[in-house]
Amino acid sequence: MVKTTIKKNTKIKESIPERIFAVCNYILLTLVAMAMLYPVLNIVAVSLSNYNEYLKAPWIILPRRFTTAAYELVFENAYFWRSYLNSIIVTVGHTTLSLMVTALFAWPLARKEVKGKSVLMAILIFTMVFNPGMIPNYLNIQKLGLLDTLWALIIPGTFSAFNCVIMMSFFRELPYELVEAAMVDGGSEPYIFTKLVLPLSKPVLASVTLFLAVGTWNSYFGAQIYISDRDLWPMALTLKEILMTASTQLLEAESDPMALSSAFTEVKTRTIQYASVVIATLPIMCVYPFLQKHFSKGVMVGSVKG
Amino acid sequence: MNGKQSKAIVKKNHPLLAHFKRFYWLYVFLIPGLLSIYLFKLSPMYGLQLAFKDFSLAKGVWGSEWVGLEHFRTLFKSVNFLRVLKNSIVTSVLRLLWAFPFPIILALLLNEMKNEKYKRTIQTIVYLPHFISWVIVITMVTALLSKSEGVINTLIVACGGEKIDFLTSTKWFRPVLIASSIWKEAGWGTVIYMAALAGVDVQLYEAAMIDGANRWQRLLHITVPCILGTVTIMLIMKMGDILNNGFEQIWLLQNAPNKEIAEVLETYSYQVGLREGRFSFATAIGFFQSLVGMVMVFLSNFLSKRMGGNGLW
Amino acid sequence: MKRIVALFLATVMIMTALSGCGNTKPAETTGGTQTPVVDQSGESKESDATQDSDEPVKLKIMLHNVSAVPEGSIADQWSTILEEKLNLEIEWILPPASGYEENLQITLLNEDKPDVICFPTNWVYQTSFQDACESGMFYDLSDMLGKYENIMAHTAQMSWDSLDIFKDGRIWGVPRSSPARADGLWLRQDWLNNLGIEYTEGEFLTLDEFYDLMYAFTYNDPDQNGVDDTSGLMLFSEESGLLFPTIARIFHIGDGFPWYEMEDGTLVDLKYSKEYDYYKQYLTFINKCWEAGIVEPDAFAIDYAVALERDDQGRYGIRHGYPGNMPIGPEEGSGKEYVYCPGVVIDGDPIGTYTYGTTSTGVWYYYAISSTCEHPEKVLELFDYVLSDEQWVNLNGKSLINVGFTKDAEGNYDYSMTEQIAEKDKENGTNLATTSLINMFLRRSDGVEFFIDKSLTPEQQKHIADLIQETFDLHWEAKGIGYAPKIVTDPVFIEYKNYMIQEEAKIITGDKPVEYWDELLDGFYKAGYDKYKEDMIAYIESTK
Predict the structure, then answer these.
(1) pTM for the whole structure
(2) Residue A174 contacts C, CB cutoff 8 Å
């Protein structure tokens, strides 16, 4: 309600330079968006084109000699579906778990009552900056018995220092009077956290969810090291195989004729690569529009001051 | 002596006990996080000792022999190290100057858009490139800037210019690197600032408008101060990464003619360390990067607080 | 909201638990029965083997470059035949090909190692592999191999030499061995026709002819489309940053810079030699080509995959190539047709012919047997059987006889069965025509036959066989293969070598004069190459 009245007001009050700015702003952002949209269109167009047509005009943004052959080939790969399922399990599991663990950790850090925050912060920064390295991490996962299970991709790294700091800084900006008021009313800490803090923090929760979900969906390194069973591979690793084997396999096979000819058949032509990219990224791209509404202005107004 | 102290503690503890009684939930909240930190971050940290050891597979991490600062000595003695370190810093600073402000500006401009639908569309589009992996992005960059088939060079020639060696010259490496970074990550970077902007109280704007503040004044006095906290935090965290430039993008753009400028610590440690299976040396390089990062975080946090801003702690 | 989240989480947990359990179970059981024994001889376990000889022996074999062995596929049926014949139960472990080497490093640390691990050839030089051998993680096979006739008969001696890593007679793996070759060039026959240039297959080109040909293929519009969109020679970068040695090979600089024995008995590495100026000749020539714009101008910035894509676009007139997989006849649609040229000869060159060597001679991947493997003799039995005459028909045909192909009395192959399976695959979305396991597992290293595509007509096969035979003949045998002086792990040495790659590029692109190479060489000798050279020569002399 408040918002619409403001809008009307501004429209009347807007001066000429302000209007020029607004127009320029629209033009500029449209240009930026076009520059960023182009490669995406190109990928989609190529994936739907005949390979020979692509070779003639690699820069197309509309498919030429439309064909879905590349997609059919990708779907023939039995691992692809399995990878989809694994990725969904891992992404949902890791994101939910990590969001809860991190938010729970960030809230006390944002509270001035909590003691020993400097020690916690020191540990936090230390784990953020220092990395024990691939081998100790691997041995650790092995020791915990998580090798070759999807757990190895879900549980490690549930606590993220980066996301914690972001949440913490957001929690600090929340109006503290509200918390105090709730405490006076006798609200318990879990109540304050779940019923007051979390609903007020939707924008930051949305962005952290986005970071987590997209990050998990796109990461392949853990799977590459911890999981040797192809049935448990997430999409990101399957995709990386499709994109990368072309050059690594060819180079390695260079001196070996038989490997080379088998590599030739394995090498994915650009259309298949791009089709795989589209299929692999489409689901995670759909996450954004669902979260986007939480980024819009005025989420705080109603609940805080109302 | 012990007795005395414990007595003193018991007396002093009273308010502390009361504190715990009142706020114990806040400490309970910390438990899952602490557990995760302990299990997956701290307990493998013993691996850092590899930087001071001569790692042998057979003997394992603990059994390998100590070599003290040997790896660091080799590192600092090397002909290439100073050049590589300089490249890392220069690249990182350039990123900070160009790539860091970009998402902020983009977010502010988006925020100025009144048409909600259009804004959302643009927002959705600019975040798309983030999903395209570097392998694909660099393939496209190569095709675009190629000397033999690149659109850009074809255009330059059509305008009567001479072909530019974008891909394999030391002069053009950094502009190409930064531009491709901005192109891929700027839109994604706006997410966090959009969240911060969403948190700005609309009533502030309302009040300012009633006071007759124009667009520019509102931006300067309300919007910017409101996201400054987020910007500071992001900046401090970026400082921790001052020697990290990421591996994939640079590795893919790097080639023999531009390596002089392109080689950074990550690619260097991969080439000299990991390729040969020399984990200790690679760990030493990583350790050095982290150490610098740690110092930078503390320093920038200190400076930020000193200048009246808010720090991480 | 909270309840939904909780419910969701619970579902996820259950799902993951289910999928997780399903997969850990077999691993656990095998882990349980396996007692890690670090015993070099393997004798102590032979009693075990006889004890439960009825039970199939379980083997885990880790392979590279095989992406799948789908159940019921041709490859899987082949694997089943092996299992039944030898009373085995084989589990093929297929890690991501794009990160195989990282995976190997990790695998070396794993307590529950696969019984057999496939290593890329260059791993014989890797410190971590050498380390692993010395600490007893793998069997020394030297004493066991003798009784496996097929393995011994069909593996080249030089392959065994490269697996004698410490040069003390111990053998650390079974090589996938094959003869070494000196590949030539593929020329675009259709472009030659368009430009009216005469060339007969099998003729050597002179350096000038080669240059002129590249020039014509670049500037005379060989594809007759009126657009300047062609390039004389396909060229690209290897992962090290060096250009692919298509041109370097003309100057006898072999792949990986091998050591040769010259006519007068001296031992040299032609790239880093101060006595011979072949490398400077190479740099001069490639610089001339570079400045004339007749080789791929993006060569430093693209890899093989991109170069191949550009080749698909019809950009290159000449490319390096092995005759065995050269397409025969004009390609449908594009009209692309190739003719094979065995090489380029330099005028007045004392060596006199096109020839070069390679350091990776004889081994394309090798298999090491973990010391945790309880039945190393079973592994060797498997290898031996795969290389036997009985299995040779399958290896040679790269598929499974009477399942993937048939062969008549005259030795004609018919692959229509595979085609039918592939058709069905398309309909059902399966992948049963896969044979890559048979291709990639092991091979015999004697002669041309293995490398011929059996689906060609007999005349074509004969023709290709002759061309391949020539590549074998042109190969210049390298010395000291598999030996690496200690200095190669010295950071100063590694770094200078890398530095030279970057500086060499400047000579090629013309930023620095060719004389700069002398300066670089001096620096390299100072950085440790003098020691390397001394060591290497001493080693080669000792093996004579």
Answers:
(1) 0.84
(2) no
